Amino acid sequence: MRWENKFREEHQKTRGIELGTKIININEEQINFILWDTYSDERLIQITRACFRGTAAAFIIYDVTRRESFEHLDYWVYEISTYGPKDAVAVLIGNKVDIEEERKVLFEEGQKFANDHQMIYFETSAKTGLNIENLINFVSAEILTKIRNGQIDIEADSNGIKLSRLK
Fold it and tell me: InterPro entries under this entry (predicted)?
């Protein structure tokens, strides 16, 4: 994912866990995101499940140019719904939309899958940055709403969320 507002052509597939951070200021409040990019290898599922605990948002990302990545989504929805927090913001992301001529999964298919699983749907391009900021801002606002509604307890150490007020 394009987390640091830059794209590396030579970026290799995740082999374990990669961490990234991003600070978002929204409505005079600050959210410090820590992104856990986990390797999608079922042999390492215990490590991946440990990353689910205490998350405020879960992103399931598939490649719109690889149908098999879309067809494997049910597995990850099950994992997150079983081992992740019930009130996490769930987001399905179709990536690589900059390669439209190679698209194998239609927007409507991604949207339907997201709707069927009570997820938010975005299509992005990590390469061009298309829709990345919109995604981050939308998810930030959703997390703040859940905090205000009491669905996410920021006092609990287990939730991994700390909120700061800007002066």
Answer: P-loop_NTPase, Rab_GTPases_membrane_traffic, Small_GTP-bd, Small_GTPase
CA dist., res. 23 & res. 45, Å (int): 28
**Any idea what the Cα angle at residue 120 is, between residues 165 and 25, rounded to 5°?**
20
> What is the tens place of the pLDDT at every residue in 16-49?
567 777 888 887 888 877 777 776 666 777 777 7
Is residue 26 a part of any domain in this protein? no
CATH of the domain at 96: 3.40.50.300
3-class SS letters over 8-58: CCCCCCCCCEEEEEEEEEECCEEEEEEEEEECCCHHHHHHHHHHHCCCCEE
